[in-house]
């Protein structure tokens, strides 16, 4: 096969300042992936993928959306086609992804995990598939080796309160050189109008040992699970919501709303938001008491194609950016906790770029001078974790806050081959700063700017999280 220098040492780095920032200050830093959706079971069992398709395409709705757009049938995406046929369909799609971040990620991942420098297309597909599959199938190339290959120091997965954390316990007992913890994601307890809410309460009651008949019982069950998660190394919570609601209520009102839902009755929008507000405030106080970091992933419009979401389930590529109002209710929620001095460290992730400045300015409202960077505008997320989205997030944060306090990148991924996204982010960051050094907008002081790069890539996150 012909070789290409597409992904070379200075990929995305356009001047000597950017090159030095990356190679001397960013690249050597270990990775703290403080939010992802990797399977702790696969990590603990050091799962070996049977081929490149299983490792790289199965479950990756980024690729699935591109394939559908390119005219690939669902049979060759999530259907009954063989794994090799699905890979060949992806390879056929790749040339059509020029200027989409998938083109960069695809070739970075092939290069970093398998030392494959060829462009993926129909001509090179079979040889790339066989080479990568051969390496994956060897015993020394399981999930743990894939993680360690990328200089990962810490991983934080995401689990529901009902999770037993058995694989986190196993990893803590045996380990493999990379620390794996979890974050607490109680959205199913918050989203009271979901059709399976009653069933979920039964599950939560079973694992917590609390029969959940009242709202007070629900709070007791969640508090019990927070303690359990804390005992097993959890130091973060996470919420994936359209927006943070805020509507005041009394305890009696919330109890009545909960009982109404327990009877199977429908709720008004106002009743839902009163319940959700009360529970989020309760949870926020719990997180503060434990010294946790709370995370809010806001702005996704999920499962918009009901026909296909019903057929394939959630997280299969039918989501988009939402245009929800964020600022007013979010500020009221945070202020309610702050007034009671119960506001913990918080990361706000925004999916709508129109709200970047909203979030970047919001974080400055609640810093208290006691914790450096207590409030964070989280890294560009989902549809925005590409070059332009990253730059826009960095620019908004720099303009409204202090980029020097930023805790940097995460994968937010289910793929064990996604860690080059940290490299991608670091290269974009260094090129942005290097360009400003070149034109005199930043001082020609490599130690000063390089120190900030190292902090953003690793040091700030290492100090911020109390693992």
- Distance linking N and C termini: 46 Å
Number of strands: 9
Helical fraction equals 40-55%
Largest sheet: 7 strands, parallel
Explain the overall architecture.
There is one protein chain. This protein is of the alpha/beta class. The chain has helices at 16-26, 40-44, 52-56, 61-69, 83-93, 101-114, 125-137, 143-148, 166-174, 187-190, 197-208, 215-231, 251-262, 269-290, 306-312, 327-339, 356-362, 387-400, 420-438, 446-464; strands at 31-33, 152-159, 179-184, 236-241, 293-298, 300-301, 320-321, 345-350, 375-377. The strands form 2 sheets. Strands 1-2-3-4-5-8-9 form a 7-stranded parallel beta sheet. Strands 6-7 form a two-stranded antiparallel ribbon. β8, α17 (356-362) and β9 (375-377) form a beta-alpha-beta unit. α11 (197-208) packs across α12 and α13 packs across α14. The longest helix is centred in the middle third of the chain and has 22 residues, at 269-290. It is globular. The N and C termini lie far apart (46 Å).
């Amino acid at each position: 096969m012909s070789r290409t220098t597409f992904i070379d040492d200075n990929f995305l780095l356009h001047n000597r300042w950017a090159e030095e920032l990356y190679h001397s200050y960013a690249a050597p830093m270990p990775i703290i992936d403080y939010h992802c959706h990797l399977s702790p079971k696969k990590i603990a069992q050091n799962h070996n993928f049977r081929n490149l398709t299983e490792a790289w395409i199965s479950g990756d709705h980024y690729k699935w959306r591109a394939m559908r757009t390119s005219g690939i049938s669902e049979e060759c995406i999530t259907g009954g086609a063989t794994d090799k046929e699905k890979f060949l369909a992806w390879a056929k799609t790749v040339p059509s992804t020029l200027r989409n971040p998938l083109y960069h990620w695809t070739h970075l991942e092939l290069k970093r995990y398998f030392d494959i420098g060829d462009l993926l297309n129909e001509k090179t597909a079979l040889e790339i598939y066989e080479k990568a599959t051969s390496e994956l199938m060897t015993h020394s190339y399981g999930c743990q080796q894939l993680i360690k290959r990328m200089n990962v120091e810490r991983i934080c997965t995401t689990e529901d309160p009902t999770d037993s954390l058995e694989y986190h316990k196993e990893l803590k007992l045996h380990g493999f050189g990379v620390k794996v913890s979890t974050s607490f994601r109680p959205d199913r307890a918050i989203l009271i109008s979901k059709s399976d809410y009653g069933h979920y309460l039964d599950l939560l009651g079973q694992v917590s040992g609390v029969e959940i008949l009242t709202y007070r019982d629900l709070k007791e069950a969640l508090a019990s699970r927070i303690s359990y998660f804390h005992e097993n190394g959890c130091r973060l919570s996470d919420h994936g919501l359209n927006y943070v609601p805020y509507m005041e209520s009394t305890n009696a009102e919330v109890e009545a709303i909960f009982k109404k839902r327990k009877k199977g009755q429908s709720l008004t929008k106002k009743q839902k938001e009163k319940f959700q507000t009360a529970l989020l405030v309760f949870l926020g106080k719990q997180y503060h008491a434990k010294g946790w970091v709370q995370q809010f992933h806001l702005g996704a419009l999920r499962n918009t194609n009901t026909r296909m979401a019903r057929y394939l389930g959630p997280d299969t590529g039918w989501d988009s950016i939402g245009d929800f109002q964020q600022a007013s209710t979010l500020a009221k929620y945070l202020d309610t906790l702050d007034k009671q001095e119960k506001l913990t460290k918080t990361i706000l992730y925004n999916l709508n770029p129109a709200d970047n400045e909203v979030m970047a300015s919001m974080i400055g409202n609640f810093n208290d001078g006691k914790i450096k960077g207590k409030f964070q505008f989280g890294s560009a997320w989902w549809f925005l974790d590409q070059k332009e989205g990253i730059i826009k997030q960095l620019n908004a944060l720099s303009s409204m806050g202090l980029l020097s306090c930023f805790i940097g990148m995460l994968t937010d991924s289910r793929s064990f081959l996604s860690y080059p996204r940290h490299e991608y982010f670091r290269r974009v960051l260094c090129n942005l700063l290097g360009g400003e050094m070149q034109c005199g907008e930043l001082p020609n002081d490599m130690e000063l700017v390089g120190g900030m790069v190292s902090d953003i890539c690793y040091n700030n996150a290492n100090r911020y999280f109390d693992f």
